[in-house]
Amino acid sequence: MSEKNREIQAMETGRPGFESVEKGMVSIHGSIHRLRKMSGFSFLILRTAHELIQCILEPEKCEILGPDGAPWEGALKEEMCIRMEALAVEEPRSRTGWELHPARIRILSVPAESMPVVIHGKEIPASLETILDYRPLTLRNERERAIFRIQDALVRGFTEFLQQEDFVQIHTPKLVSQGAEGGANIFRLDYFGKEAYLAQSPQFYKQMMVGVYERVFEIGPVFRAEKHDTARHLNEYTGVDFEMGYIEGFEELCCMEEAMIRHALQKLPELCPQELKLLNVRIPQADPIPFIRFYEAKELIARRFNRPVREKEDLDPEEEKLLCQLMEEETGSEFVFVTHYPTAKRPFYAMEEEENPQVTKSFDLLFRGLEVTTGGQRIHDYAVQLSKMKARGMDPEQFESYLQIHKHGMPPHGGLGMGLERFTARLLEQDNVRRACLFPRDIHRIAP
After folding, report:
1. 15 a known binding residue?
2. What confidence tens digit (pLDDT) does each residue in 1-20 have?
3. Separation CA 293–CA 271 (nearest Å)
4. Ligand-binding site membership of 24 (annotated)
């Protein structure tokens, strides 16, 4: 076995695509990503699960077999799935530092039609809507699929950190009898003659499970029936949620999230170095993340930008961008925790500040101009929770199963929910959150 083949074998051990390296030959499978005919040979770019590999195809030196094993009389086409045996040859000009010279190609499948979009360029020359219309195909583009390799690495980093911190992974129902947030932004459906909903968050179940395991997390789908048509909203997204008990204050939640993000970001160069390079990703520092109270943030933005305050109970999208700009200039951080949101803007389970019940022990995390996380300390006392629900005109009987935990003893606890697609989009500096979602669901799109 040549030294180059040893290097390839060491690099590709366990990867889909490479099957063996034997007698100087590589056995590999993948799809023909691009085929360019030259004089006497062709450049064939093979797309494997991890990368694009340059191949030099010389017809007189390569046996080509069809799906039935008989000699193939037709031409090779892009998007054919093939298995090949090839010689690995050192080639410094290649992205990998080597190229393959096929000796035998076995065609495994033949596409019935040509591709409706061009996917083999650096970027897809089409609008976002077209890219999403043909999502099963456009995800084969090198840059498109790099996004989701990075997203996968983030999830692996989050999961690894939380498990190291003794969080138990749970899987909660997505068909529920009550909405965690309430209001109109909830999908209703018929459940065998009863009214049910798609879960807005795993909130109630996370809190229930704190009474069981103390620390729990879930990474799963979240549904919001919000009729927003913006670059920052999805109607189904992936929530990264955790909840923890026996806390002294909501600041512990912020510190845990900061450490989780830092761990995941530090893992990225190890898990997906090629993708980070391809997308020219700027990995931010998440140590330490500064804090600012909500009303201080509003006043700071108004003063520094001579901007009137319009929305008194929340930050509007422009304010989020301006605040991140200011905090980066003053602290160097591209993250900022905004704390103590108004009680009127937070859900019924948010704990209020004792000294000032008009604000809650809650926070949002902003990252590069966009809110990516909402969290806070929860009410754990039964009488306090009951009183707040009644003050909001809610019927406690509709939340009987949820209130069991308050009746029968809960520790001080809290948690948060992060939007995975939003976090990915800001990390990769994408202009639309749908670019960081495999198959987006918004007010216009339910397919593919």
Report:
1. no
2. 455 555 555 555 456 666 65
3. 36
4. no
